[in-house]
Every structure is written in C-alpha cells, then in structure tokens.
Amino acid sequence: MSFQVEGKVAVVTGGSSGIGLAAVEILVAEGAKVAWCGRDEERLNASKHYILEKYPHANIFTKACNVLKKEEVQQFAKDVKLNLGNVDMLINNAGQGRVSNFENTQDEDWMKEIELKYFSVLHPVRAFLDDLKQSANASITNVNSLLALQPEPHMIATSSARAALLNLTHSLAHEFTQYGVRVNSILLGMVESAQWKRRYETRSDLNQSWEEWTGNIAKNRGIPMQRLGRPEEPARALVFLASPLASYTTGAAIDVSGGFNKHL
Ligand code: NDP
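Above: the input record for the complex with NDP. Below: its predicted structure, written as tokens.
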C-alpha cells in the first residue's frame, strides 16, 4: 500500500539532513511535491542535489530559512505556495537537543531551549495554517522525543521543553479539528544522526565498526532492540501520520524508540 501522497504538497522543516531528509526522500519517492528548509545554505544545496540525482523529475522547492525567525518562515510559506501550490502536510522537524543538567544549565540556556521547542512549531503553524485549512487532507506532524514522557537528568531543559511540546501538540489537535487539520507527533528514542557520526569519528577504539560502536551505546543505555534507530524509521512514521492513511488519527503520538519507553 502506498502512502497516498502523490501530487500533494508537503513541507519538511529541517529537511536538509537526518530524519528530515529521510522524510523528504520518502515523500518524493511517493510522488508528493516537497519543500524543505534548513539554515545552512551549503547543506541545503547538498540535500537538493542528493534528491535530484536520485529523482530527476522530483517537484521540489528548497530555501534557507531559520524556523525561529518569524518573518523568514512567513516568506518561506509564501514562496512554497508560489512554487508548489497549497500545502497539505506540514512536518515540523527542525531542531536539536541540549545536553546539560540543572547545575550547568544557565537561565539563557533555558530560554533558548524553550524558544526552540515552542517556536520551531508555532512559527510554521502560523505561517501555513491558512493554507492547511484549504486542504482536503491537512496535517501537521511534529517531531518530538520520548524525553517528553521519560525525562533524562542529563538533558533537563530539553526534557521539560519536550513535555511542553507534547502538551501543545494535543491542544492544537483539538483546536484544529474544526478546520479539518490533524495534528500528531512522533516520540523518538536515539536515532543515528550527524551528531553521532561526529562522535564516532573520535572513538577511542578505531577498530570498532559503526554497527559495533552504536550497538554498544544502545546496550549501555538499555535500549531493548540493542541498536540506534535509522533516520528512515522515524521518517516512515512521520509520513504515515502526515498522510491520508492516518485520516482518523489526531492528537496521537507514535513511539519510535526501539522499545526504550518504560511506561504503559
Ligand atoms: P540533524 O542534525 O541531522 O538534522 C536537523 C535538521 O534541522 C537539519 O536539516 C538542520 O539544518 C535543521 N535545523 C536545525 N535548527 C534549525 C532551525 N532553527 N531552522 C531551520 N532548520 C534547522 O538531526 P536529526 O535528524 O537527528 O534530528 C531531527 C529532529 O529530531 C530534531 O528536531 C531533533 O531535536 C529531534 N530528535 C532527534 C533525536 C536523535 O536521536 N537523532 C532524538 C530526539 C529528537 P541546519 O543546521 O542547516 O539549520
């Protein structure tokens, strides 16, 4: 069964790398028109070339845009509409986590983390909502973390901001039913990312393969599936929630953590 997104317009924030790029690729492969952004122009161009090399006929649009800058996001939304048409699916993926505990998290760090988790969603939602209201299959899908339900002391600010985002996602889901816009999220465990690749380059045992190294991390952290997730795994869950296949699902969160969740 296909995701039924052919001809529909999708936006992926932070689509130039990792999970975002994997979602872009699935959407393009399924025949959707896809727009994505990131801050770094070079990374954005590299992702565009990667997609066009594999899918020369892809209908895509990319633009450098910082999701924390309201005017840039509004301009991005206008440009997407102009280039691809009215948006059906918004995937809010842009962001990163902060490793720090209470002792070494300063007030400014708290403010930055709260700003990132709220406004990386609020700015795009405001910018695209009018378009989404006009779509027969409108969805907003937020990338969130299992930290929202299962906080980790070494990521104290990220954990509490993630909990706030889960709460916000629920409120938006309920408010937006009147517009026919579904709002869902995925809760990630640990997924292979550029950050992990950088740490791998500086590993102490250079004989360790990527699989061994990440497998050990997963075992030490107690991930039951004993490996990190691959970007395409959360990406598939994202595209499912965004697609018409999830037409009766709103306010939901799919866990993509390899069994790392400890709650029922
Ligand atoms: P990557 O670093 O590979 O990708 C992040 C993407 O977001 C990049 O395209 C980056 O591009 C973009 N981005 C970051 N900040 C902004 C911004 N302010 N405005 C626009 N684009 C931005 O990370 P992942 O794929 O691993 O992560 C994707 C999402 O999943 C993130 O929100 C992350 O916090 C979340 N997550 C990831 C986990 C993991 O284990 N990998 C665990 C839990 C959550 P650029 O830097 O050029 O702007």
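Notes for the reader.
The pocket of NDP is lined by residues 13-14, 16-20, 37-40, 43, 66-68, 93-97, 143, 145, 188, 190-191, 193-194 (CB under 6 Å).
The mean pLDDT is 97.
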